[in-house]
What does this fold into?
Amino acid sequence: MLLTREEVTQIAALARLALTDTEITLFQKQLTAILDYTALLQKLETGAVPPTATVLPLHTVLREDVPGACLRQDETLFNAPQTQAGYFLVPPIMVKE
It folds into this structure.
């Protein structure tokens, strides 16, 4: 199924591309090859193939999430620039005008 020059020009216009005549001829061949290959893939029988998100085995590279010892409040606030009543003190992000 060979795309016409007008179809390639219309596709280029939709993509907001300004193509030269040489580029139109090149893309006419390339886009036709892509569409032909897609049509070939659509003929494949895939009914017995289960849907998958990935063909790779599922495994995590992260370590197990194991709870550890917690810091005391004074240890947690030790390096904080500002604290107040045992909490982090941060500047307001919304100012009432």
Summary: Strands lie at 83-84, 87-88. Helices lie at 5-14, 21-42, 73-76.
